C-alpha cells in the first residue's frame, strides 16, 4: 500500500520541528545542560514541555498557555489529555502516532507523579524520537516518583516551567501585583498587602480577587478599595488579630478575635497567624547589627521588614520569648492537646498583647 499523503504542516507544527532541529538531530538535544526554568506565563510550544511543581493553579495556566499558543497558529489543533494514574501501556504511542493529514496535535499528560510504570518508561523512550507535529506537555505535581523521567527531560534541554507552591507573603504580594499589572491595573503597596491578608491563604482565590478588582473598579487600587470589597474578611483574618496583639492593643485584639470566631474562623489558623507574625519579628530581630545582606537573606518583602522594625521598638527579647512560648502552647492546645481551643487562642492573644513592651 502506498504511504498516506501528508499535507503541508501547520505553523505550530513547523515551530515544533524548528525547536527540535535546533536542539540536535537525535531526540530533543541530549547531553547539554538544562535550561533555566520558566514562569507559567513564559510557557511556549516545543516538542516536549515539562511543567513541574505543586501549585496547581500555575500548572493549569502553564498548560493552557501552551495550548492557546498552538491554537493561535492552528485553531483546529487536536488536544488530547492523558491521566497518569490511569495510564495503560501503549497509550502514548497511539496518541502521538502520525495522523493521516499531518494535523498539529497537543498531548497533555497530567499527574506524572501518580503515573504508572508503563507511562514513565514510555515517556522516557519517547524523548529519543519525538513525533512530528506533536507538542507533548508533561505535568508533574511534585515528589520523587518519576524523577528519572524528569531528569531525562531536563537533559534534552526541553523547556521546563516551574510552578512551585507560593507560600511566603512576599511571593504572594509579588503574584498579586503581577496579576493586576497583566490586567492593566496598578495597586499601591498598602492595597496589595490588604488583598493578600484578606484572601491570600489560597492562590486561586487571590487570583480571582485580583480579577474582580480589575474588572469592577477604576483608578489606582488602594487599601480603601480592597476594604470595600473584602473589608469583612480583612477584619476577620488572623493577621489583623495578630497585628493588634503585637501592637499591645489588648482590647482591639480581643474584639477582632471574637469577631473572627463569630464569623466562623477556626482557632488553628488564628494561632498560626500569631506564630507567623512572631517569627517575622524574631527573624528581623536576629539581623540587628548584621548589615543589609542578612536582611535580604530572610526572603521578606521590604514592607514586612519595615513593619517588623517598627513593631520591635516596643518589644524586649524577654517579651518576645514569652510571646513565642505562649503561642507554642496554644498551638499544641488547639491541635488536640487542650480541651477548649477557643479559650487557648484567646489566652494566647492576651499573653502576646501583654508581652508587648514588657
What is the count of DSSP helices, taking H or I runs of 4+ residues? Answer: 16
Within the CATH hierarchy, at the fold level, what is the topology of the largest domain? Rossmann fold
Q: Judging by the overall fold, what is the CATH architecture of the largest domain?
A: 3-Layer(aba) Sandwich
Return Rg in Å. 26 Å
Shape: elongated
CATH homologous superfamily designation of the largest domain: P-loop containing nucleotide triphosphate hydrolases
Mean pLDDT: 85
Strand content: 5-15%
Q: Supply the number of structural domains.
A: 3
The helix content, as a percent range, equals 55-70%
Number of strands: 5
Strands in their spatial order, largest beta sheet: 2-3-4-1-5
Task: Report the order of strands and helices.
Answer: HEHEHEHEHEHHHHHHHHHHH
Please tell me about this protein's structure.
This protein has 358 residues and is an alpha/beta fold. The chain is 56% helix and 8% strand. The protein is built from 16 helices and 5 strands. The chain has helices at 11-23, 56-73, 91-95, 117-126, 147-155, 169-182, 189-199, 203-216, 223-236, 238-246, 250-262, 267-286, 292-296, 302-312, 317-337, 341-355, and strands at 48-52, 78-83, 105-110, 134-140, 160-162. The chain has a 5-stranded parallel β-sheet, sandwiched between helices. Strand 2 (78-83), helix 3 and strand 3 form a beta-alpha-beta unit. The protein is elongated and about 75 Å long. 40% of the residues are buried.
Question: What's the gist of this structure?
Answer:
This protein has 358 residues and is of the alpha/beta class. It has helices spanning 11-23, 56-73, 91-95, 117-126, 147-155, 169-182, 189-199, 203-216, 223-236, 238-246, 250-262, 267-286, 292-296, 302-312, 317-337, 341-355, and strands at residues 48-52, 78-83, 105-110, 134-140, 160-162. Helix 6 crosses helix 7.
Amino acid at each position: 500500500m502506498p504511504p498516506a499523503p501528508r499535507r503541508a504542516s501547520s505553523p505550530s507544527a513547523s515551530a515544533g520541528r524548528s525547536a527540535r532541529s535546533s536542539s540536535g538531530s537525535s531526540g530533543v538535544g541530549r547531553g547539554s545542560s538544562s535550561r533555566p526554568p520558566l514562569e507559567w506565563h513564559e510557557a511556549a510550544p516545543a516538542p516536549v514541555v515539562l511543567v513541574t511543581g505543586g501549585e496547581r493553579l500555575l500548572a493549569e495556566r502553564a498548560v493552557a498557555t501552551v495550548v492557546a499558543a498552538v491554537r493561535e497558529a492552528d485553531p483546529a489543533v487536536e488536544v488530547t489529555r492523558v491521566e497518569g494514574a490511569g495510564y495503560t501501556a501503549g497509550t502514548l504511542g497511539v496518541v502521538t502516532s502520525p495522523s493521516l493529514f499531518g494535523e498539529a496535535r497537543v498531548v497533555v499528560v497530567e499527574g506524572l507523579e501518580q503515573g504508572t510504570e508503563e507511562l514513565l518508561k514510555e515517556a522516557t523512550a519517547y524523548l529519543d524520537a519525538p513525533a512530528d507535529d506533536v507538542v507533548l506537555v508533561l505535568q508533574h505535581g511534585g515528589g520523587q516518583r518519576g524523577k528519572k523521567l524528569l531528569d531525562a527531560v531536563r537533559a534534552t534541554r526541553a523547556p521546563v516551567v516551574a510552578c512551585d507552591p507560593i507560600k511566603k507573603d512576599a511571593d504572594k504580594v509579588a503574584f498579586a501585583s503581577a496579576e493586576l499589572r497583566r490586567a492593566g491595573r496598578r495597586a499601591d503597596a498598602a492595597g496589595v498587602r490588604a488583598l493578600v491578608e484578606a484572601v491570600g491563604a489560597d492562590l486561586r482565590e487571590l487570583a480571582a480577587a485580583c480579577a474582580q478588582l480589575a474588572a469592577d473598579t477604576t483608578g489606582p487600587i488602594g487599601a480603601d478599595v480592597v476594604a470595600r470589597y473584602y473589608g469583612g474578611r480583612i477584619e476577620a483574618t488572623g493577621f489583623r488579630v495578630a497585628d493588634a496583639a503585637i501592637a499591645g492593643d489588648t482590647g482591639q485584639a480581643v474584639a477582632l478575635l471574637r469577631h473572627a470566631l463569630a464569623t466562623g474562623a477556626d482557632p488553628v489558623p488564628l494561632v498560626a497567624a500569631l506564630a507567623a507574625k512572631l517569627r517575622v519579628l524574631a527573624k528581623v530581630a536576629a539581623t540587628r547589627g548584621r548589615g543589609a545582606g542578612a536582611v535580604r537573606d530572610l526572603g521578606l518583602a521590604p514592607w514586612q521588614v519595615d513593619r517588623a522594625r517598627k513593631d520591635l521598638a516596643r518589644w524586649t527579647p524577654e517579651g518576645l520569648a514569652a510571646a513565642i512560648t505562649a503561642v507554642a502552647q496554644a498551638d499544641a492546645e488547639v491541635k488536640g492537646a487542650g480541651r477548649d481551643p477557643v479559650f487557648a487562642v484567646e489566652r494566647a492573644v492576651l499573653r502576646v498583647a501583654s508581652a508587648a513592651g514588657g
